[in-house]
Specification:
Arc Repressor Mutant, subunit A
């Protein structure tokens, strides 16, 4: 039994190393420009060892994209307990997400490659980006709608429009930062969330 657990732990560690290497290389060199052999070298294993865990490059990409989201949401502690109206908590979370993006350029660039790199990224990544935006918009809109019903958010707030504005701001600020690393997107996001809080939230 101990040997089985050891083997499972070793396998999980090897998978994590492969995903980390792939994330770095995909973000820097692009999906098409990165070979499985290069990923295996970066991970310190053989290509056959890599294929044991990920039989195709697309399967590896799917795991890289899933890992990107796990790292992002774990970092901003989406599931933690907050006090106060849900809309206030949500603005804190989206601010933390942009802060997290600044801390890991590779993860941030990977997300934008998925959304816009149609010549470099396969359909699986484009669909991931589409679904991610759809889900994020729906969740944000639900929070706004809940806030309106609870009397915490202005009654004339359009949930879908507010959600789309938040997503567009995050995306635009990240793009500016990816083009110019001296751009302070965290400060800009802080200003944006303060404006939303001032204009949307009814202080109790």
């Amino acid at each position: 039994m101990a040997k089985t657990h050891d083997a499972e732990r070793a396998g999980a560690a090897r998978r994590a190393k492969i995903v980390s290497a792939a994330l770095t290389l995909f973000a820097v060199q692009g999906y098409r420009g990165t070979s499985l052999a290069a990923i295996a070298r970066e991970a310190g294993i053989t290509q056959s060892g890599l294929l044991h865990h990920f039989p195709t490059k697309e399967a590896l990409l799917a795991e890289v994209l899933a890992e990107r989201d796990r790292q992002t949401f774990d970092a901003v502690e989406v599931g933690r307990e907050y006090e106060g109206p849900a809309m206030v908590r949500t603005l804190e979370i989206v601010y933390d997400m942009v802060t997290r993006s600044r801390q890991n350029r590779e993860l941030t660039r990977m997300g934008h490659l998925g959304a816009f790199g149609s010549n470099d990224i396969p359909e699986i990544a484009l669909e991931w980006a589409r679904e991610r935006v759809r889900t994020f918009r729906a969740h944000l809109a639900a929070v706004v709608k809940e806030g309106v019903a609870a009397g915490h958010v202005r009654a004339d707030a359009d949930p879908t429009a507010v959600a789309s504005l938040i997503i567009g701001t995050i995306t635009g600020l990240e793009e500016q930062w990816l083009l110019d690393e001296s751009f302070d997107m965290v400060a800009a996001m802080g200003a944006f969330t303060r404006i939303l809080r001032r204009d949307l939230i009814i202080e109790g």
